[in-house]
Design brief:
heterodimer, A: alpha+beta, 6-stranded antiparallel sheet, 4 helices, 6 strands, 25% strand, B: alpha/beta, 8-stranded mixed sheet, 5 helices, 21% strand, globular
């Protein structure tokens, strides 16, 4: 059984990992724009209305970006953030408009990733992030080019 | 190329007492590897770390992101980053755990692409002033030569040679 200190440590760790997951996701998308369109960090910062050093700092070490800030970043990068949640035990998928697909019966716990994973497929970047006090949910945030 | 295709002298690491680092919550989906000496492993272990002296969360966060293949900031010229290659010192890298200030520094070397070996851990407070920092970095080389005498550190000409996949070069803005 976890002590209070251990529980707090794991919650802090989960928070930092979630921050890091967003940092990595946005860095992947920015890097792609930089590679294909010579989009610079200065141009990115200008479009966000913030200083380049502030944005640079956020990519050097994960920051606690607000949802509003991430929405702005997604807007500038031309992507839509898609929010889903998955029940770790059952595989059930939840979306803001209701429950969606359910995993087939017999799905095992080990078939569901417990740690953040970033993957790209067909122009969409997906990030799966473990979350929740009891580790019972996984949030999946996809960024689709729009 | 994934780490599976890279030759890593695992038997040397094992004999020298290094253990592989795995994130606190998972050992699957890993894209890079970290091996740590027992003193570093003790710090990274939840039961071994002193949360007042060592930021267990931040150290594990950095190493977790590295092994999971996520973006991690890297510098070759002393810019503020999570992982720094020291200038003028033969293939010595430092993992920078900066909070709470002054934080801790974990010294090591790459043994292959995407495979970092961490040997020494120091409270940053104990590394000031600068000459002492350099002395410890050179001690990392001596320590490598002591525990891995038949193994050369991995060397590459550019960042992507050391770390593949998603990486943030803090020297380029």
């Amino acid at each position: 059984m976890q002590t209070k200190t251990e529980d707090k440590q794991m919650r802090d760790y989960n928070r930092q990992m979630l921050r890091g997951a967003f940092r990595s996701l946005f860095w992947v998308m920015f890097s792609e724009r930089k590679r294909t369109e010579k989009f610079t960090l200065q141009a990115f910062a200008d479009k966000l209305g913030i200083g380049k050093s502030s944005l640079s700092r956020g990519f050097n070490e994960p920051q606690n970006w607000t949802i509003d800030k991430m929405a702005d970043m997604a807007h500038v990068l031309g992507v839509e953030l898609v929010v889903e949640a998955r029940n770790v035990e059952t595989g059930a998928i939840y979306t803001p408009t209701g429950a969606g697909n359910y995993a087939k019966k017999g799905a095992t716990k080990t078939s569901i990733p417990r740690n953040p994973i970033i993957s790209s497929c067909g122009g969409a970047t997906t990030i799966a992030v473990g979350a929740g006090k009891d580790g019972a949910t996984i949030r999946i945030i996809s960024a689709n080019a729009v | 190329m994934t780490f599976n295709a890279t030759f890593i002298p695992l038997e040397h690491l094992e004999v020298a007492g290094f253990v592989e680092y795995f994130p606190p919550k998972s050992a699957s989906g890993l894209k890079r590897r970290v091996f740590v000496a027992s003193n570093v492993a003790d710090l990274l272990d939840k039961d071994g770390a002193d949360p007042v002296m060592f930021n267990w969360v931040e150290a594990n966060r950095i190493l977790s992101e590295f092994v999971l293949g996520r973006a991690i900031s890297v510098s070759f010229c002393s810019k503020r980053a999570e992982l720094e290659k020291l200038e003028g010192i033969d293939e010595v890298w430092v993992c920078c755990v900066r909070a709470p200030k002054p934080g801790w520094r974990l010294f090591g070397r790459f043994i292959a692409q995407d495979c970092l070996v961490l040997m020494l851990a120091y409270d940053r407070y104990d590394l000031a002033p600068s000459p002492k920092y350099q002395a410890v970095a050179e001690h990392a080389i001596a320590e490598w030569n002591r525990v891995l005498p038949d193994v050369s550190p991995y060397s590459a000409s550019k960042l992507s040679g050391y770390i593949s996949g998603v990486v943030r070069n803090a020297d380029e803005d």
